[in-house]
Design a protein that fits this description.
The protein has helices at about 1-35, 40-50, 60-75, 85-100, 110-125, 140-145, 150-165, 165-175. By secondary structure, it is mainly alpha-helical. The longest helix is centred in the N-terminal third of the chain and has 36 residues, at about 1-35.
Length: about 180
């Protein structure tokens, strides 16, 4: 009888410690986000680096937020002092994939900022001009562009360019 009670107590303690560990990871994530939002990016990065080995303990939506804030922290810190553009691209890419797999993990504003940062980082990584088509494009960014009407504008721009290059076809179409 006593061994059953002891086993129940031990299992209860193990369960409680696991729950508190999860709460600790969430607390660390929230602390890192708080530092990021206060423009204390070095402190934010320190917390995210400590949390990194345990990101599998976060729920999928929390993991997406971790990837986003870790990537944006690196993006904000990227300068001559810190060359972390590859890290920023890595984490933001994971955030984009996570958002596609687990929609609504990030806000529309976060998705927009993430896609803008990824576009800039990818252009620099691949030595592209701003007008070049993206080498790497994520579904969530493409979907967001469609929602914003960017794709429609690109189609209209292409149509205008075609008409400028082929004015005879335009006259033919208008006379028909």
């Amino acid at each position: 009888m006593r061994s059953g009670r002891t086993l129940t107590t031990i299992l209860g303690l193990i369960f409680a410690s696991l729950l508190s560990a999860c709460a600790t990871y969430q607390t660390e994530l929230n602390q890192g986000i708080k530092y990021y939002e206060s423009n204390e990016h070095e402190k934010s990065l320190a917390i995210f680096r400590v949390l990194e080995p345990d990101i599998d303990s976060l729920k999928p939506d929390e993991r997406a937020r971790y990837y986003y804030y870790r990537g944006m922290t690196d993006y904000r810190l990227n300068n001559e002092k810190y060359d972390v553009s590859a890290d920023a691209r890595h984490w933001l890419s994971l955030a984009a994939v996570s958002e596609a797999d687990f929609p609504n993990s990030l806000t529309n504003r976060q998705i927009s900022l993430m896609c803008e940062a990824l576009g800039e980082l990818n252009r620099k990584a691949y030595n592209q001009a701003a007008s070049d088509a993206p080498v790497v494009e994520f579904k969530v960014c493409k979907d967001k562009a469609i929602e914003a009407g960017v794709e429609k504008k690109e189609e209209d721009d292409k149509k205008d360019k075609d008409e400028e290059e082929n004015p005879k076809q335009k006259k033919k179409k208008s006379s028909e």
